[in-house]
Structures are given as C-alpha cells and as structure tokens.
Amino acid sequence: MNTELYQIPLKKIDGQDATLEEYSGQVLLLVNVASQCGLTPQYEGLEVLYQQYKEQGLIVIGLPSNDFAGQEPGTEAEIQSFCANNYAVQFPMYSKMNVNSAPRHPLYKQLITAIPKTQMVIGGKLMKKLAEKNLLPKVESDVKWNFEKFLVARDGSVIGRFAPDVTPDDKVLIKAIEQALAS
To answer: I need a surface site. Which of 19, 130, 156, 183 has the fewest CB within 10 A?
Structure first.
C-alpha cells in the first residue's frame, strides 16, 4: 500500500487540520476547483458522481486553487457558501492551495510526480483555447487548468489523470472509477 499520499498535511475548508488518511482504502477523485471558471458547472457532475458511487467507496475531494487566471479569489467561507448554495456540494472540500504556483503544495508535487502527463480529450477545445490565450503552463507536467482530475486507487497509488475538459460524466472517467472501485 502506498501511504505517502495519506500523510501529507492538509487543511479542510473549515480550517481544521487534516490528511487524506481518513479515506485510506477508498477510491479518491481529487479535483482542483474554482468558482469563477467556465468549467465551474462541473461541480454539479462531481456531486452526482459522489452521490452515485460513495456507497461503493468513491470520495470526490475538492481542492480550490487560485492559480488559473485568478478564478478562485474567495475566502474559504465564500467558497464553501458558493458550493453549497449553487451546487449543493456535499463531497469534502479543502482549503485553497498552490497547484502550479510556488511553493507548490506537497500533495500536487506527489500527484504530478506519479502521473506527469494529463490524459487529454480527443478533439478537446479547451487546450486549444488556452493556447490561443497563452494560458497553458510552461511546464508540460503542470496541471493544465481548473478541474483537472487525479484518480487514486484504494491502495493509495495514483492511477489516472484527466484533463479539465474530461467532464464528470465522461465514459473514460466513469470506466476508470468503476474499475478502481472493483479492485
């Protein structure tokens, strides 16, 4: 079992110290989220995924970040209120963290090290749009944008990395989640 990921210090959105240890043995979908992004409606799909699969052991985890064009400027309380009021989010949310900016949070260091390349959407328009606006990260392994997803198996190993425009209802993501839950 790869327990390193579970030991990284985090803070829950309410400021409480935490780690991912409480989710050991479950499948995790870690998503860097933002409230003012064109992809923000993915919160709805992420909550649907969480409700649909939580009894089987899936935990969706929201990790707010303001690293992408300042699209998460709010305080933790504002983020929590936004998520509850607009998307009825019940999955666990954590405090804002640096995903690409220095100093990069140790959780993202480990996730990116485990899977340095994002699984892109065939024909995905997001990367083209980001490139046109010169918003793609300079380092290929960096997280591309808000709502990039990392899938962690029950043993703590990082087994999937999905581009921001892979929506929560995408067949590729669902298949990967279902395979991880069956393991």
So the answer is: 183
